[in-house]
UniProtKB/TrEMBL annotation:
Record-stated family: Belongs to the class I-like SAM-binding methyltransferase superfamily. TPMT family.
Gene Ontology terms: biological process: methylation
Coiled coil stretches, renumbered: none
Pfam families hit by this protein: TPMT
A GO CC term assigned to this protein in UniProt: cytoplasm
Reaction(s) this enzyme catalyzes, per UniProt: S-adenosyl-L-methionine + a thiopurine = S-adenosyl-L-homocysteine + a thiopurine S-methylether
The name this protein goes by in its record: thiopurine S-methyltransferase
Length: 240
């Protein structure tokens, strides 16, 4: 699917242009099951750093662009209140079916979201476009778990993405951000390459940014994208 999308975005000179993904493009990916980004185990970066993200019990945790991430169930099982946000209805319904969780669905009375809520109310997933989401819809959050989210956003929309999430945080709220760095001349994304300078530019004024770790992680999927190196970066952002 990525390959086809890349081919579709080749310009008249034969150059691959930045692949811009719309919500509709993501919806089609879910329909066609082009979801290799999904992992069936709890994310290892979350397991490693959750003690820094969630220092107290009963936190409200936002999982933007949640897909059907099993991390939502993991966090809810630890007694946190989890709110996901996802455009694809298939992803949300798959999540509840695969995790064997009963749920209800209702329309938000004033904003363009369907609200999927587990019957114990521990997990709520809003279905709609992140760029229409704000604290009037679901309140403010203590923590954000961002895997496959920031990196899925088109680079041209990163500032808006950060604005949307920032508005839903209080001072001292924390954001665990998982990003990737690779040679973007070889693969246009998504997931989109993110440099240290970009993280600094986007976050330094509004957050204390702590680099937790950077490590090399080249796997067969990335080799098939023509990459020779692939770095994973985990950062903890604490709202000023
Ligand atoms: C790369 S996937 C990652 C999913 C999940 N975070 C994970 O780690 O498995 C990105 C997800 O964001 C969703 N998405 C992309 N743009 C969106 C938007 N503007 N609003 C809501 N969801 C969006 C896609 O449907 C997709 O499920």
């Amino acid at each position: 699917c990525n390959f086809l999308q890349i081919m579709n975005k080749v310009n008249a000179y034969g150059d691959v242009e930045n692949v811009v993904m719309t919500c509709e493009d993501w919806k089609v990916r879910w329909e066609k099951k082009h979801t290799r980004f999904h992992i069936s185990e709890v994310n290892s970066s979350l397991l490693k750093h959750e003690h820094l993200l969630l220092e107290k019990a009963n936190c409200s945790v936002f999982v933007p662009l949640s897909g059907k991430s099993v991390d939502m169930k993991y966090l809810a099982d630890k007694s946190h209140r989890v709110v996901g946000l996802e455009f694809s209805e298939i992803a949300i319904r798959d999540f509840f079916a695969e995790q064997n969780i009963k749920f209800t669905v209702e329309k938000h009375p004033s904003h363009p979201f369907n609200i999927y809520r587990s019957s114990d109310s521990a997990i709520t997933i809003y279905q709609g476009d992140l760029f229409q989401f704000n604290s009037n819809v679901a309140g403010k959050f203590d923590a954000v778990w961002d895997r496959g989210s920031f990196v899925a956003i088109n680079p041209s929309q990163r500032v808006s993405y950060c604005d949307v999430i920032c508005e839903m945080l209080n001072p001292s709220s924390k954001w665990l951000l998982n990003t990737f760095a690779y040679d973007r001349s070889k693969y246009p994304g998504p997931p989109n390459d993110t440099s240290d300078e970009e993280i600094s530019e986007l976050f330094d004024t509004r957050f204390d940014v702590k680099l937790l770790e950077v490590y090399d992680s080249l796997n067969p999927a990335q080799i098939s994208w023509g990459l020779d190196w692939f770095k994973v970066r985990n950062s903890l952002l604490v709202k000023k």
